[in-house]
Amino acid sequence: MTERILECVPNFSEGRDPEIIRRIADAMGAVDGAVVLHVDPGKATNRTVVTVAGAPEAVVESAFRGIAEAAALIDMRKHSGEHPRMGATDVCPLVPIAGITMEEAAELARGLAERVGRELGIAAYLYEAAQPDAARRSLSVIREGEYEALEQKLRLPRWKPDYGPATFNPKSGATVIGARDFLVAYNVNLNTTSTRRANAVAFDVREAGRPRREGHALTGKVLTDDTGAPLALPGTLKAVKAIGWFIDEYGVAQVSMNLTDLGVTPVHVAFDEVERAARERGMRVTGSELVGLVPLKALLDAGRHYLRKQHRSLGVAERELIHIAVRTLGLGELGPFVPEERIIEYRLRDPATRRLVQMTLEGFVEETASESPAPGGGSVSAAVGAMGAALAAMVANLSSHKRGWDERWEEFSVWAERGQAIQAELLRLVDADTRAFDKVLAAMQLPKDSDEQKVSRRAAIDAATVEAINVPWAVMQRAMEIFDIAEALAESGLQASVSDAGVAACCARTAVRGAWLNVRINAATLKDKSLVSQVLADGAKLAAEADLRESELLAAVDGKL
Fold first, then answer.
1. Residue 216 — pLDDT band, cuts 50, 70, 90?
2. Which residues pair with 287 in a beta bridge?
3. Dihedral of CA 24/28/30/35: which sign?
4. pLDDT the model gives residue 219
């Protein structure tokens, strides 16, 4: 199950007063489930960009508190700065990172804008994906005239705010709230010091391209259309803005890009295209740098892309995919690239959710053997299942490297990727089982002095128990998928590893049977069995099926040994 992560990057019209900036950031960071990742003030622009991410509902609450604090502390009548702006909170985009769609983010943005208008009395405009009116989707169009023109603008019917009063709020101005794709600032390093040559490559690749010219591509007369507007020769990459510049600190020229839609042009596609364009102009790419934070998916996709080009299995560990991406893109050329500091999901990771799986094997075994009831059979079942999935992925990866089977690498890669996905989910469930048990214990400690408290306590226990049942039930379902991989590889994979496919099946059956015992013992404490009736009905069938599939696969393995 993918964790749901939303990012918010509000821009506040204050970049010079550290106390105001601190109070806004503190207000945003006070929400459980939302983490302030970065605060970037600018004195010349008199503007601060705060980056917060986490659970979607928590991030929206954090954004509202930041907007409310900015409205209380910032007076737009006294504001000046180089950056365009129209309010104390000038713009507030919501950005889906993982487990949440753009439409869901847009709906959250609309809800936030409605609340800002209703509770704070601030005119709120929607933009990008949250704005249904195409004519008002662009931020620059909405912000035209800035704060100084806002009072007159609000009098025009066509500029009625989407939410909030259509009256001028001189202190706070107006706010633009929306949903957009993640924007990646990405620079590719060239083996030249020439800004002009770096610009040439930037014009080759950026979507806007370069002006069409008569004759010489650089010095010829710019061609225009019937209205006198210059004609453009488009670049090769969509959703990319780019320019060339020289970085004196490093002594290199770069193609500096904004990748505005990673679904259209991912990081690795931009890198490869700049590399091609630079090579055609007699230059080499020596590395690249990511500015700020990046979603995990961007690097995993890059790692898979470069493995695919090598005809290697994509079903390898997450850390290996990241390593391949970092090395191939040259992300460490200008300074160390530390995934734990630069990947959004890693920055948000709560160590408590991975306490057991981060232990050494010896530590996990000793923790299990301690006097504490958790981790117990549920966590161990998930761990055994993860080992089985890992073995299945191993056999697939080894099969993809067998001499003479080069044309089958994709077939085995698919199995290895599936094994890695099952392994990752079962590892997550190792800790999830212990956390679910802890919730049951916490519910049992609730007071029960009055009838009302007894009812409340019983409801809390039942809710926690249902979660403690759902976790091992998820273990059963995912562990059953291991049989598909093990059976396929025992039949047509590397025969030298057929015993490993058999062990994978043994692990799968143990995980299913062990998790089923946990489902049953937890269900026994529920008074209302209807809460898990379907799980109890299906669980026995799943356990019996695991027995049968293990038996059949081991018989097949025995026949090959």
1. low
2. 189
3. negative
4. 66
Predicted local distance difference test score (pLDDT) of residue 217: 63
Q: Catalytic residue, from 38, 79, 83, 323: name it.
A: 83
pLDDT tens digits, 20-62: 999 999 999 999 999 999 898 888 788 999 999 999 999 999 9
Long-range CB contact pairs, 115-120, < 8 A, 24+:
115/64, 116/64, 116/67, 116/163, 116/164, 116/175, 116/177, 117/161, 117/162, 117/163, 117/164, 117/165, 118/163, 118/164, 119/68, 120/67, 120/68, 120/71, 120/164, 120/172
Over the Cα atoms of the chain, what is R_g? 28
For the chain, give every residue range classified as CATH 3.30.70.670: 184-334
Binned at pLDDT 50, 70 and 90, residue 248 comes out as: confident
The first and second tokens of residue 524, run together, are 């026994």
DSSP string, 61-110: HHHHHHHHHHHHH--GGG---SS--SBSEEEEEEEEEES--HHHHHHHHH
Q: Which structure tokens are listed for 72?
A: 């209380």
Dist CA 149 CA 338 (whole Å): 45
DSSP string, 251-303: TEEEEEEEES-TTTS-HHHHHHHHHHHHHHTT--EEEEEEES-B-HHHHHHHH
Rounded Cα distance between 207 and 235, Å, is 5
Q: Exposed e or buried b for every residue in 441-458, given b needs 16+ CB within 10 A?
A: eebeeeeeeeeeeeeebe
Annotated catalytic, 433? yes
Cα 487 to Cα 502: distance, rounded to the nearest angstrom: 9
Kindly report the CATH number that applies to the domain delimited by 5-179.
3.30.990.10
- Name the residue among 433, 443, 504 with its Cα closest to residue 472: 433
Look up residue 339 and give its two tokens. 């995934």
Contact call for residues 220 and 214 (beta carbons, < 8 A) = yes
pLDDT at 305 over 90: yes
Neighbours of 306 (CB within 10 A): 18
Residues 6+ apart with CB under 8 A from 221: 213, 214, 215
CATH for 184-334 is: 3.30.70.670
Residue-wise burial string across 233-256, b where 16 or more C-beta atoms lie within 10 A, e elsewhere? eebbbebbbbebebeeeeebbbbb
What is residue 2's predicted lDDT score, i.e. its pLDDT? Answer: 61
Show Cβ contacts of residue 161 under 8 Å, excluding neighbours closer than 6 positions. Answer: 117, 123, 124, 125, 154, 174
Residue extent(s) of CATH 1.20.120.680 domains in the chain: 354-560
The residue length of the chain stands at 561
Query: pTM higher than 0.85 for the full model?
Result: no
Catalytic site residue 83? yes
| pLDDT digits 0-9 by tens, 517-542 | 999 999 998 888 888 888 998 999 99
Domain topology for 354-560: Four Helix Bundle (Hemerythrin (Met), subunit A) (1.20.120)
